[in-house]
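Fold this complex.
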Amino acid sequence: MWPEENTYLKNEVVHDLMPRPFGSLGMLWVLFLLTLFATGVFYYLKQIEQGLSITAMRDYSIWGIYVSNFVFFVAISLVGSLISAILKLTNTDWRSPLTRISEMIAVASISFAAIVIIIDMGRPDRFLNVILHARLQSPITWDVIVILTYLVISILLLYLPMLPDLAIMRDSEITIPAWQRKMYRILAMNWKGTERQISLLKRSEVRLSILIIPVAFGIHTVTSWLFATTLRPGWDSTNFGPYFVSGAFMVGAGAVIAAMYIFRKFMHLEKYFTDRLFDHMAKLLVLLSLVYLYFNVNEYFIPAYKMKEYEAEHIHELFYGNYAPLFWSVQIGGMIIPIIVLLFPKGRRPTPMFFVSILVITGAWFKRFLIVVPTLSEPFIPMDRVPESWKHYFPTYAEWSITIGTLAGALLIITFLVRFFPIVPMAETIEIKHKQIKQASEP
Amino acid sequence: MGNTDSGRRNLLRDGLTWGAAAAATTVGLTAFTQDEIEESGEKVKLLSQHGEIVEIDKAYLKPVPDAYIDRLEARQGIEGKKFVMVIDLAQCKNLRKCHDACEAMHHLSPEKEWLKVLKMEDSELTSPYWQPTTCFHCDEPPCVKVCPVDATFKRTDGIVLIDNERCIGCRFCMVACPYSARVFDWSEPEIPPEVAGVPYSPETGCPPKKGTVSKCDFCPDMSRKGILPPCVTACPNGVFYFGDENEDAVSNGTITVRLSELLRDRAGYRYLEDLGTKPRLYYLPAVNRAFPFEDDEFTGGQKVD
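Structure:
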């Protein structure tokens, strides 16, 4: 509740968290992202004209970095449900400054997951067939349903808790352009902070938080089934659902840490993204990494123990074949090293954590590559009489440009959301501070 | 059931009242009332409806246009049929005539292989052999299972086809197929002039479409005309047998045999049976081989014996 307000406290929070126009560094950052995004768009238009032949994908390497990038985006979007649902429902009090940024990451990445999978289509012009001729037997249909559901719930989880903030910005005395105030007025939907509005909001937040958990599990489990429902060695695994979900939570936590660090540094939010908060996130990341490590052991150790003919070829390629350098870099750099660093209190300080989170995110991106690509390089039938380039998939310049363009696009969405909306929930922060003051003043 | 002079046999006699000899396309007689026809002097023997052999001048024959099977009809399958293929590995010496005939028939570019001849070696000490591989037209097709838009489908006659006008190019079917039977038009396909104006039919997959999947289709358009697929007739060693499981008969163009007897006597098996896809293509093991195994990459396609 926030009726009997300490105006000084409120003004301070609003002053700290009110979105500001980009500085010169911010402008440079946006320009940089726009360049990457435009390059991606340019190559995508070229792809539409020439077809997927501008990629390195061919009849054996059927899927490439478009699909692995899709899995990455879906994975990272799970952070929304982790922070704003799981931590909320478990009454984890320190999570509140993180809910907004995690939902922003979730909305941006799930939107781009949808875009990336359309980029991978040979006939994007027939996209509507997915709805017009939908077949419920296909995991792709399940994915379409669950991704759209997740997108809607994520947008609601970003928007609804922001209503009080929008009202605060609408009514604030800080000078902002008229159109921006108008935007806040429309988006705030006549929020007045009445008892009834507050109770409605709280109830819908709880419901959405409960609803999003199965959908979040669903979205990444179904994504894992795009692979696990096939007969191919390396994918033909019953472990794939939890393996994907745990990896997704891990990279999601990594993404939030990276975002916290960057925004704390450039927006001077040390008061909100405290060292204590970093420490909490570090411990959470260690836990999630250990769970992911556990599923990795299951995923690689069991087939490596049995060495069934086709599985064995796959394991060989990963452990000491063509993909070994990447495989071990990802497993050690993206999983083992983060776990070790974060186990020590010194490693749980913001700066080392930032580097660890970058390791986790990069490792996670390449991990998806290692899940998608090697399996297709080892089909059941021998790859006979095919051009040498077909045997070893390596993305083309166009593929890299498009993929980097999508990553830049997601970062652009986050950047613009942060430009216009408070990155830390204002109203909730004020409420918590009030509570703290009250508790402190009571004997 | 006698053979015609070309060595081809009409397996599917339905609708064929006049068995035309040695023609790549079906022919019929022009109306006798037309008197303007100039006789060529070349005679052909035909079997009349009453079972008599009649001899007429070739000039009276005119090609009957192929029946156009539209996208909806192509989903049905040929009634009463259950197509099946048997490949005799003991006779294959990698001449690749099947491959070339397939390429010519379907106007495929060289890298788009609907039919592959693979060098197989099961284990270190066992002898290598050549294995022609087409689409297996599985009875439990993993490709059909995963298609999100029903663009690839299983017909009543056992054939798995693709509707290239519905396919969205997600390539999930290619990923799901454990036999790598499917190929993709990564760029705008080159369409030869002879098929440029042909209306599209899933039974021929022609003309091909950019950004969609294609594969061996068991040539249902040929079966409708009562002609064996070109891979079968092109093989000089009679490696390929094609026929109808319901009739229990398969033919390699020279001989026609009982499917059940062939599979029993020659220990027929299916490739990667344990995957549970139930292929409609059987292999006869490479035992008592007709030829020694020779791996000559460069002459394989051209060598003529």
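The longest helix of chain B spans residues 97-105.
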